[in-house]
């Protein structure tokens, strides 16, 4: 299987969670026993988690910036 081009394509499409999951699963021998649907479910779960984490981090940064700006005015 052509792993690196696939990972590159996933990242180009903005699917970094899928790319990471693909990389990890590809190195695990027990993952070869998974059905296609199981792989897909793991990929989607990983991408969803990755996106939620990015949103949380962006909100935390924004909240911190607002807090710093308010703190500087006093």
Notes on the protein architecture:
This protein has one domain. The protein is 81% helix and 0% strand. The chain has three helices and no strands. The protein is elongated, with a radius of gyration of 18 Å. The model has no long low-confidence stretch (mean pLDDT 85).
Protein traits:
74 residues; mainly alpha; 3 helices; IstB-like ATP-binding domain-containing protein; IstB_ATP-bd
Sheet with most strands? none
Assembly type of the shown chains? single chain
Fraction of helical residues: over 70%
pLDDT averaged residue by residue: 85
Low-confidence stretches: none
End-to-end CA span: 60 Å
Domain IstB-like ATP-binding: 10-69
InterPro entries: IstB_ATP-bd
Pfam families: IstB_IS21
Protein name: IstB-like ATP-binding domain-containing protein
Summarize the structure.
The chain has 74 residues and is an all-alpha fold. It has helices at residues 3-12, 16-27, 36-73.
């Amino acid at each position: 299987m052509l792993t690196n081009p696939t990972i590159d394509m996933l990242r180009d499409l903005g699917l970094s969670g899928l790319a990471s999951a693909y990389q990890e699963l590809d190195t695990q021998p027990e993952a070869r026993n998974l059905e296609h649907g199981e792989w897909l479910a793991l990929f989607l779960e990983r991408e969803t988690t990755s996106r939620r984490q990015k949103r949380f981090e962006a909100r935390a940064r924004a909240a911190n910036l607002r807090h710093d700006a308010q703190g500087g005015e006093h």
